[in-house]
Specification:
34% helix, 111 residues, alpha+beta, globular
């Protein structure tokens, strides 16, 4: 099936479409951008979120919104860090080393 939310040709399976349609409300707004009792409140460990600078999914502003939304919740991750992966597209193609280094550097801060 063609994904109706994309402006360019993007396809999903019928099963994925049905999963999206039957997702509980607290998971549709997982990070609590618009809802007060978001599913992210169930996470207690530190969280790392990132996008690529050449991606079609999110921007630095989106990551800041994600972070501020999580911080507004009554509970949730003990820490949230966000980063933009330079020159990376949606799949981080060719930037796998940068992604791995980003995750490793972040993981080193957890001890």
């Amino acid at each position: 099936m063609r994904d109706p939310k994309r402006s360019f040709p993007s396809f999903i399976s019928a099963a994925t479409f049905m999963d999206i349609a039957s997702t509980p409300p607290q998971f549709k707004d997982f990070f609590g951008v618009q809802t007060p009792n978001a599913a992210v409140t169930q996470i207690r460990c530190p969280l790392l979120a990132f996008f690529g600078t050449k991606g079609d999914v999110g921007t630095e502003a989106d990551l800041e919104l994600l972070k501020s939304s999580i911080q507004r919740q009554s509970s949730g991750p003990s820490r949230v860090q966000t980063i933009m992966i330079q020159n990376a597209d949606h799949m981080y193609a060719g930037e796998e080393v940068q992604v791995a280094q980003t995750i490793a550097t972040w993981a080193d801060t957890l001890v």
